[in-house]
Design a protein that fits this description.
3-stranded antiparallel β-sheet; RNA-binding; single chain; alpha/beta
Length: 376
RNA sequence: GGGAGAAUUCCCGAGCGGCCAAAGGGGGCAGACUGUAAAUCUGUUGCAUUAGCUUCGGUGGUCCGAAUCCACCUUCUCCCA
């Protein structure tokens, strides 16, 4: 299933085979929560920005249009007409992000819908059932993502509950994959490590979930209030306990620099709303650093966002024009911003892969870390 | 021709004697954004920035003190002819 092709120190170059095709890792998954990348990006555009994996959300799609509708439409791939791998997040992150409108119990989480306030319940079984209906390539375990900093005792209790939830997820996923009515009977399941910034909880948690023979393992609960140093430290602490022959996924991360740092620590999968959200807001990633095309200095700038970029925005349009689109609140501005950022992220991953293949990743890292995080 | 009302900082618009460099929008400028309740949020927006200086159509006046009161002028809107 997952094969490591090359390795340079802890950085891995691998390939994950799925029913929807191969995923070359390290990979960045492009976040389209509601079965669309925000900013007017179609699944067809995703091919143009070299997206390998699209990511959608269980909670959001359950509420609207409902997993039943998507099941009846033939699953997410047919629904959004995307034929590459799709990962669905479990709704666990919403336990964190919708904190004001939910209650957590052993059986699962009671939410008030952010759309109409109606009461909804989601536990491990419900999350698996919904994701099975969505028929994504990879389903994520239903977890509780805790905000940092967190109390030790609460973290311990919560992450142990998340382990129990994972066992229930695994059992339910096995059952669903054997149902004749299931669209994707080879749906993969990734488990999620939690434990906030407490090394002992993280390690205990990782050891427990590694016992299940899952298709991949994620590190969750990072970049949610912790410092960047704490995040790197936690990866360093947990990574040695992650199965080497399974993909590792750092959830919700991050900046280009975060990604390079995490790859060097043995992480294979990433996802983040940053390229799409920042793209919508005019903050764009370039090979020379980060820019805001909204800045006045680009008013009459005839050059593309990035001279070295071959994305649909950079091939045809100038910064001056794109700035105008943002200022005029023309939808095309956001669209071009997001296309550029996604292309940049997917290309960054390609460069990382090539660097590991040619055993030059350490140099690549050294060189890029200086530049990519800089605001210019 | 007669009558009524209005002119505020880039724009709209509040203020109607001191607590006003002047509310609130918009626009401008800058920043934030990490498993998306985010086409969102925050800061800033007269000049100098320490004191201070110059603003509320214009000119003059009342008052310790005026964007606010009075007189005239200018422009605009509405009503009656």
């Amino acid at each position: 299933m997952f094969k490591i092709l090359n390795q340079e120190d802890r950085a891995r170059r691998g390939v994950l085979s799925t029913v929807h095709g191969e995923i070359q890792t390290p990979v960045f998954m492009n976040v389209g929560t509601c079965a669309a990348i925000k900013g007017g990006i179609s699944s067809n555009d995703l091919y143009d920005v070299n997206c390998q994996v699209e990511l959608s959300n269980t909670y959001h799609l359950h509420l609207r249009p409902s997993d039943k509708v998507i099941y009846n439409m033939g699953g997410l791939h047919k629904f959004m007409n995307f034929n590459k791998p799709i990962l669905t997040d479990s709704g666990g992150f919403q336990v964190f992000s919708l904190a004001a409108i939910r209650k957590i119990k052993e059986e699962g989480v009671y939410f008030a819908s952010h759309i109409d306030g109606s009461r909804i319940f989601m536990g491990p079984e419900e999350s698996m059932q919904i994701q099975s209906n969505l028929a994504s390539t990879i389903a994520m375990a239903f977890d509780e993502c805790i905000e940092n900093p967190a109390e030790y005792e609460y973290t311990k209790m919560s992450s142990e509950r998340t382990i129990r939830w994972l066992y229930r997820c695994k059992e339910e996923m096995d059952r669903l994959n054997n149902l004749p009515t299931t669209i994707n009977k080879k749906q993969m399941l990734f488990g999620i490590n939690q434990g906030s910034t407490y090394d002992d909880i993280r390690i205990y948690n990782m050891k427990q979930i590694a016992k299940l023979d899952l298709d991949g393992y994620a590190i969750g609960g990072l970049a949610v209030g912790d410092t960047v140093e704490q995040m790197y430290h936690t990866i360093d602490v947990v990574e040695p306990f992650m199965p080497i022959n399974k993909p590792r996924y750092l959830m919700g991360v991050g900046t280009p620099v975060n990604i390079i740092e995490a790859v060097s620590r043995g992480v294979d999968f990433f996802d983040c709303v940053m390229p799409s959200r920042n793209g919508r807001h005019g903050t764009l990633f370039t090979s020379k650093g980060i820019i805001s095309v909204l800045n006045e200095k680009y008013k009459e700038d005839k050059s593309p966002i990035d001279e070295n970029c071959n994305c649909p925005a950079c091939r045809f349009y100038s910064k001056g024009y794109i700035r105008h689109l943002f200022k005029a609140k023309e939808m095309l501005g956001m669209r071009l911003g997001v296309l550029h950022n996604l292309y940049f992220y997917n290309n960054l991953m390609k460069e990382i892969r090539e660097a590991i293949e040619t055993n030059t990743f350490n140099e690549y890292k050294k060189e890029k870390i200086e530049v990519l995080g800089k605001r210019i």
